[in-house]
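Late entry, written up from scratch paper. The run itself happened at the end of the previous shift, but nothing got recorded in the book at the time, so transcribing now.
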Amino acid sequence: MATKDNLTAVLYGIEDMRLEQRPIPVPKDHQVLLKMESVGICGSDVHYLVSGRIGPFIVEKPMIIGHEASGTVLQVGKDVKSLKPGDRVAIEPGVGCRVCSFCKEGDYHLCAEMIFCATPPVDGNLSRYYVHDADFCYKLPDNVSLDEGALMEPLSVGVHACKRANVRFGDVVLILGAGPIGLVTLLSAKAMGATKTIITDVVEGRLKKAKEIGADYTLKIEKNMSEEQIVKTIKELLGEDPNISLDCTGVEQCVRVALQATKTGGVVTLVGLGKFEMNLPLTSALIREVDIRGVFRYNNDYPTAIEMVKTGKANVKTLITHHYKIEDTVKAFHTAKTGEGNPIKILIHASADWKP
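Output as recorded:
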């Protein structure tokens, strides 16, 4: 390649993000070399910057950040048949071992050997150039932009959460939390046929966006509201009990509300990760046979997410609030960290060709 510019965003430790040149990687036989385009900032990226760790995953050596991404294929390995130079792709950031029972059964996201972008010690993809396994790069339809391609990662979380909850036409759905994951879960629930939806949050601006993208009801949680009041208000607004609840916060109070508000025989799906241990009203949920299901990332959900955007069932473009070029990565993370300007989804543009 003529260029040697592979500007890369590297997290060295707590509050220590640096831009530096890295060698342009060479694809293996089953990989593609990508000219990176749009990379979204995820809450986990911010958490690594602020805390240096998420649970057992600790930043112990410099790590390239970024995992919500799209790019354009520049070069393909000799065994790659599915892609060609010039193809625009969404990049699924997690690759399993392919040989364990989980991978063989299609649950590759549960693989113990999972390699996931920007999860220590694995590097992410906020670079000018990046290599990735070709079978985890999904070609974008002509009517889906590269910016939307980067949002296939969070949208896939919403798709997977709604598949786990078995959302179908006619369902009455409660979503707790209207951050980026709550909003993509709302988009997914509506696309899958949820007839009536309500979403809660403590921030009015997020609820306004939720209303714009299809929420039937919104509820702002005030500091002085008791759990009983929250549950009662949810049911009053809906006119009935939700048969599916999805918590996208990980906050103990929200999980408790989900368990208490959900209709007898319904499903509570926990999407957000919070404290390792919580005090929850389990007995009431158990004797009412409320199913409690966990969610971890996604598997085989990118094609569904892309199809939802292609067909207009889900408008992710409306969630993008901020754009930065890669040279302004530190500034972009400052916006994400402080919430200045009410960001929902921040995109960093890795290509030197990008113009605002």
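The chain has a mean pLDDT of 97.
(Scratch paper discarded after transcription.)
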